[in-house]
Design a protein that fits this description.
By secondary structure, the protein is α+β, with helices and mostly antiparallel strands. The protein contains two helices and four strands, in the order ββββαα. The strands form two sheets. Strands 1-2 form a two-stranded antiparallel ribbon. A two-stranded antiparallel sheet has the order 3-4. β1 and β2 form a beta hairpin. The two termini are about 15 Å apart. It comes from Kribbella deserti.
């Protein structure tokens, strides 16, 4: 599963680990990605989405129907 949210579009960010002596090494900040099933009443089936924690809150706020329509408008398969 790639670290990419289908709702918000958040991806990993890159930066540095900074030690006590101030040496810098590359690191990756991964988003909190979850694979969740959501019931889609209009199609009478479940859809599986990879969403971040913020994406789950967005679905709760706007509704799964509106979010799935937005994802399909971008051309992604649901």
């Amino acid at each position: 599963m790639s670290a990419h949210c289908q709702v918000t579009g958040v991806k990993p960010m890159f930066g540095h680990n900074v030690s006590h002596s101030h040496r810098r090494t590359k690191r990756r900040f991964n988003p909190n990605i979850q694979s969740r099933r959501f019931w889609l009443p209009s199609e009478n089936r479940f859809v599986r989405l990879t969403v971040s924690a913020k994406g789950i809150k967005t679905i709760d706020q706007h509704g799964i129907e509106k979010i799935v329509a937005r994802i399909r408008a971008r051309g992604e398969k649901v």
